Amino acid sequence: MTRRLKCLRIARCAVPAQAIWDETQRHGERLKQHVQHQQAQVAVERVVLPPAGADHDRPLGVSLDGGKMHIRGEGWKEFKAGTVYDVVVTPERDRETGEWVDQVHGVNLTYRAVLGTVDEFAPALWALAVERQVPQAAEVSVTADGADWIWNLADDYFPDSVQIVDWYHATEYLAHAAEALYPHDAEAAQRWQQARRDDLYLGQIHKIIEPLERAGLTAQAEYFRKHTRRMQYQEFHEQDYPIGSGTVESGIKRFKHRLSGPGMRWSRPAAERMLVLRAAIMSGTFDELWALARN
Hints:
The chain has 295 residues and is of the alpha/beta class. It folds into 2 domains: 38-46 and 54-165 and 246-294; 169-230, no CATH class. It has helices at residues 17-43, 118-131, 148-157, 167-181, 186-202, 206-214, 218-226, 233-238, 246-259, 268-283, 286-294, and strands at residues 7-10, 13-16, 60-71, 75-93, 100-115, 140-144, 162-165. A 5-stranded mixed sheet has the order 5-4-3-6-7, sandwiched between helices. Strand 4 (75-93) and strand 5 (100-115) form a beta hairpin.
C-alpha cells in the first residue's frame, strides 16, 4: 500500500512534511557544528592575552544557572545556561520614598546553553566570554545562586571577578534558616528573619551565623560563612554591581518556554540543536549565526 505523504503548502508549492523535517534537522546540525567549532578554536588557547590598547572600561556581568528538559529514554536532564551582559546604571524613582535613586541593570544580553555536565558547558561559557571581551574588561561581576559548580567555574574562568550571591536566593535561605531556628514559633521566626535581613544587606553576616551555631544549625551557618564575601550587598550596590541574577533566571524561563512545555519530549540530538538555536534567537544573533555557518 502506498503511504500518502503529508504535505504543507509553502509559496503555493506542495512540500512533503518529511522534506521540511529533513531540512530543519540538517540546518540545525549545521548551526550546532559551527558553534562547536568556534568553541573549539577558542578553547585551544585558554588564556586570552589582549593586544595592547584592547582593554576596555565597560563593566560586564556574568550570570549562570540551570534548567530541566525531558529527554526521551533518559527522563528529565539539566541544561546549563550562562549570559554575559553590559552593566548600566540608570536613575529611577523609588516606589516607597519617591526619591530618585540609581538602579543597576543588565543590557545587551547574550546567552549560551548546553545539555550536559559542567565540563561540557565550560567551553561554551568561555567562548561567550571571549566573544563579549570579558577577559579585557576592567570590571567583571558574577552574580548567581549558591550552587558550588557555578562558583568553581567563576574561580577558574573569572578569577578577578567580583562574586555575588543573588539577593533573592540569600533572603530565601535566610527564611529557611529562621524556620529551622524557630520551628514551632512562626512569629518569632518572622521577627528574626526581618531583623537579620537588614544585617544581611549590610554585610554583617556574623550576626546571622552566631545564633545559628549556638542552636546547633551548623549546615545553615556554614552556608552564610562560605558565602560571606559574596554577600556584601550594600558595598556591591554602592559600587554599581548587580546583586540580582534575574538576567539568567529570566533566560532559563525563556529556554524552558520553548523546550520544556507540556508534553514536550526531545531526542538528545534535537535538544542540543534547539539549545543553540534558542540561545541565538534570545541573543538577537540568529541572522549572524546563519550567515557565518552558511559561509
